[in-house]
Amino acid sequence: MTGEKQNLSIDNGTMDTDKMWVIMGPQHPFSHGLWTLKAQIDGEIVTDAEPIVGYLHRGWEKECENRAYPKIIPMADRLCYAASMTYTHLYCLTVEKALGIEAPEKAKYIRMIGDEICRVQSHLMWLAAVGTDLGNLTVFLWAMREREYFMDLNVRLCGARMTTNFTRIGGVRNDTTDLFDRDVLRCIDRFEKAVWDIIALIDDSSIFVSRMRGTGYLTREQCANLGITGPAMRGTGVDFDVRRDDPYSNYDKVEFEVPVLKDGDSYSRYLVRIEELFQSCKIIKQCVQKVNALGKSAPYRLKVPSKVPAGRAFARIEDPRGESMMYLVADGTDRPYRLKVRSPIFTNVSASKPLVQGSRIADVPVIMAMIDMCLGETDR
Amino acid sequence: MAYGSILNFITFDDPMANPFYPFGGAYNLPFDISYKLWDIIGGIIAWIINLIFPDNGVSQWLISAEVSNAFALIIFMLIIFIVVFVCTLLSLWMERKVLGRLMDRRGTMIGLKGFLQCIADGLKTFMKENTIPKKVDKMTYMWTLSLVIGTSVLIACMVPLSPRWFVVDYGTGLLIIMALFALAPFFILVSGWAQNNKYSLIGGMRAAELMISYEVPILIMIATTCLLAGSFNIGAIVDAQFSSTWFFIPQIIGFITFVFCATAEAERVPFDIAEAEAELVEGWQTEYAGMKWGLIMLAEYFRGYVSCAMIVIMYLGGWLIPFASAEVNGLVPEIVFLLKAWFVFFVMIILRGALARVRTDQIVNIGWKVFMPLSVVNLAIVLVLKIGGIY
Amino acid sequence: MTKEFLDKYPRNPARTLWIMKPVVKVLKLLFKTTIHRPVTILYPYEKMWVPDNYRGRPGLRFDKCVACGMCVRMCPTACIKLVDVADDNNQNVKRPQVNMGRCAMCGYCAEYCPVDAMTVTPDFELAEYTRHDLIYGPRRLAYDGINEQMEIHIEETLISDIENGNPERRISPFKTDRPILEASKCISCKKCEKVCPVDAVKMVEHGVNEKGRAILYPEFDDDKCICCRNCVEDCPKDALQINEVL
Question: In the B/C pair of chains, how many CB contacts fall below 8 A?
Fold first, then answer.
């Protein structure tokens, strides 16, 4: 606090105040994971911010170069603990492209079910985090309770709760178990009712809404310049979703809406994510029907060669948090030559300076929660 | 009195007959209990001494009026504190259980439906290492803490539970409680400076910011209630509500506003910006470790209890049940008072479960643009009622 | 398709000081949850139901195991090791040992076990006091009440089958893939015969060389072979490789 400026200029009637850097993180309740936000504050107003990531770097990409292709799938699970199936899906898509094969229809639908279950899980975890960031534990526990039912669906599908290790190159690990469709439909019907409780708690409360509205503005231009994707981008009015505009798997065969809002503040990002919860439920319902229509005997896992021919492959999918991509360079052996991951959060977190600049320090957790940090994939 | 019977020493005198009785003409139940307790303890000691050394001065001294009174006062203080302490622990336990059920979990589960968890937490914080950071201003760091805790405990003890359960029967009781209640934010502000921590500094500043925004409306509303009752004395306010109606009916605006202001006074969730754990790790409590932090938490619940008691005294008829006869009201007015206070605390718990923390600029806005005009409107209504002769 | 949430909610819910609805909601749910059981479970006393195919620690059926080393090869965290252990007849055999401190519970060992000796088990309470206790030997890996649900089979469809209009046949790669010999590289070292866990390799004489020694080439018994790749990996001259049927 002891600044070098001592000239309290009385002449023009202004007062010089010292700005101070507040280091938030890595051990801080607001950083959901190990990262740091350095915020320069002037009183309560944030004037500058700088994110520091990399505490969780574990050499993921280098590690992949020493592993056979199937052994990377459990590692891809651990890229994002909240939505593990999306990354295994992405990895398998990339390798399938390099092999020049396509997964069977049934596998595609099962993968989509897995993806959307994980999207709901991830969004619910984000909702829980928003609750604690705003100082309300009820939202946290109610959202976590709903998430638990989707975890149970994961267990029914593949026997594991979080790190599912479910997608395989050329298909999925196992067929849907008996009564899985019944469990899914029950869970979703229940969820679509129960989530309105949380919505009533947040959207009908002027405190929640006023904390989110009008904070953390982001424009379309900033989205383009900073490379922001996902719900954060759709909250600013950019109508783009990889699932709809560049469909992978069978997303072109199901019907769903992409919510887009123009305001660009925290609240619109919140609304987009809540709407995505409902749309994900719709996709799951349709996929369950399609899986049932394909019958029990339809193939779900192709036999693939263990060696990938030399070449390059690239795939991208819509992660719950944005657009994630993988780029594979294969050299003809059973191990990748190079596997590059583009994590949406690593790019999105670069927006923290324009997001929090000018807002109050009390709003920083809420604004950064709308980015939905996930350090597993950011630091890799 | 050589080798006198024990009944010569344990006489169960009427404390009010004691010439040094400290409460004037008013009967005081806890003092009565403590006086009789000392009668038993002191009488037995005096009897035993008398058995060994017959006709000594010490025995007579122990059961003399002055000494009985002095020791009875010490026991009286202990009784008052223990009752308040247990009430606070009960409200803490209630918060944990109700919040737990509200969030679809179980709350605490250790012993006596979870009540012993409070004891376990207390023991745990007391066993922790007493860490004092190197670069804090140690003197200020410690005395602000002691004053925050001390004033909180003091006002919690000063709240009367009934006409027979009080510490001091002030003519200006409500004002003195309020004055002590409003002291803590100053100490929080100084403590934030002393801790040499940026989070604490911001937290301390926020405590001051919080105080200027709700302290003025709260005082206006206290003045309004006293105007309606015609007295600052707590007993008089309660009696006035018994003879007319509970004051929350004429001052419904004031009641709702006061509930929120009291929540802010106790620094509970919608207004706990001084220790907002999402952005400031623990706010002004960041550098207090172990036992000190445990005491701060306890003091916070003491303040919550006092807030509820204030609401009960000012708006919900204190310890009296309306339309009940004097005999019914004379039975257990303390329990009636505590039940009402716990009901108000329950409302505060529900608010905590339903609402989020407001921002600093919002609390100033609400304080000056909503609470302040509402309290003035409330005062105007009461003035009209008073001039119109309805009250 | 409609937007369920955004259509119901106006874009501008600027209701200042409106907090009654969440309070009422919370009271309603408080009432509801008070008369129902809480969703949380008292963990050490009650336990969550887990299905049979839950992926807890690996389990091993000692008698079924043939010590092919497939689990060792496939483990992504390299936590499995083959160790010498006495079997029921006091013979020295090799069986897998799992270091549970490294295990990632991915289930690959069970999935890639050609004889389904390795399984997943619903046992997830693995805390121990020392690191040494975390190492599960072959006998300790056994799990009471093991059943077929805990086995994981690879049921793959061949791409050629789909092209031939037979997409419903599912087959395990351990039944189709077989090692093939590049005879010019073979030096008749008999290593493949030694390492084969199921005695599917037999060295057959194919004449004599110029020094008068017998030229031995391995021959594979396709019924016995489980495609464990031991012979391929241990071949000193890389004369063997797996023929992947696609």
Answer: 39
C19 vs A145: CB contact, 8 Å cut-off?
no
pLDDT at A327: 92
Bridging pattern class, strands C118-120 and C58-60: antiparallel
DSSP A204-264: T-HHHHHHHTT-S---HHHHHHHT--THHHHTTT----HHHHS--TTGGGS-------S--
Q: C1: pLDDT confidence band, cut at 50, 70 and 90?
A: low
pLDDT category at B288 given cuts 50, 70, 90 is: confident
Residue C42 sits at the chain A interface (C-beta within 8 Å): no
The pLDDT mean for chain C works out to 82
> Which of A28, A136, A361 minimises the CB distance to B281?
A28
Interface of chain B toward chain C, CB-CB under 8 angstroms: 98, 100-102, 104-106, 109, 350-351, 353-355, 366, 370
Which domains, ranges and CATH numbers included, belong to chain A?
60-379 (1.10.645.10)
Q: In angstroms, what separates the C-alpha of A71 from chain C's closest C-alpha?
A: 5
List CB contacts (< 8 A) between C27 and chain B. 350
Kindly give, in sequence order, each residue whose CB lies less than 8 Å from that of residue A182, ignoring residues fewer than 6 positions away: none
Q: Which residue has the tokens 């770097």?
A: A57
Read off the pLDDT of residues C126-161 as tens digits, 9 standing for 90 and up. Answer: 888 988 888 888 888 888 888 887 888 888 888 888
pLDDT band at B82 (very low <50, low <70, confident <90, very high): very high
Mutate to test the interface with B, among C24, C30, C42, C45 (most CBs of B within 10 A): C30
Does residue C33 belong to the interface with chain B, where contact is any CB pair within 8 Å?
yes
Mean pLDDT of B34-40: 86
Q: Measured between beta carbons, which residues in chain B are less than 8 angstroms from residue A30? A: 278-279
Chains in contact with C, where contact requires at least 3 CB pairs less than 8 Å apart: A, B
Whether A275 and C104 lie within 8 Å, measured CB to CB:
no
What domains are there in chain C, each with its CATH number?
58-150 (3.30.70.3270), 173-243 (3.30.70.20)
CB contact under 8 A, B99 and A208: no
Mean pLDDT of A48-64: 88
**Which segments of chain B does DSSP mark as H helices, in order?**
29-52, 57-62, 65-102, 116-127, 138-158, 173-181, 184-194, 198-229, 234-243, 252-265, 290-315, 326-331, 333-354, 360-365, 372-388
Cα B108 to chain centroid distance, Å, stands at 24
Grouping H, G, I as helix, E, B as strand and the rest as coil, residue B357 is coil
A29: nearest CB among B278, B355, B356: B278
Is B104 in contact with C17 (Cβ distance < 8 A)? no
Measured between beta carbons, the chain C residues lying within 8 angstroms of B100 are 38
Distance, in Å, from the CA atom of B217 to the CA atom of A156, rounded to the nearest integer, reads 57
**Cα separation, A149 vs A186, whole angstroms:** 10
d(CA B354, CA B343): 17
Tokens of A202: 């947040």
B72 in Cβ contact with B34 (< 8 Å): yes
Model-level pTM? Answer: 0.87
CA distance A59 to A164: 21
| Chain C positions in Cβ-Cβ contact with residue B106 (cut-off 8 Å) | 38, 40, 42
Write the pLDDT tens digit of every residue in B124-179: 988 888 888 888 888 888 888 888 889 989 888 888 888 888 887 777 778 888 88
Angle at C29 between CA C27 and CA C34, to 5 degrees: 95
According to the model, what pLDDT value does residue A9 have? 44
Angstrom distances, CA of residue A148 to CA of A151, A152, A201, B142: 5, 6, 19, 45
Give the Å distances, CA to CA, from A171 to A89, A285, C72.
9, 20, 24
∠ CA(A287), CA(A289), CA(A295), 5° rounding?
Answer: 105
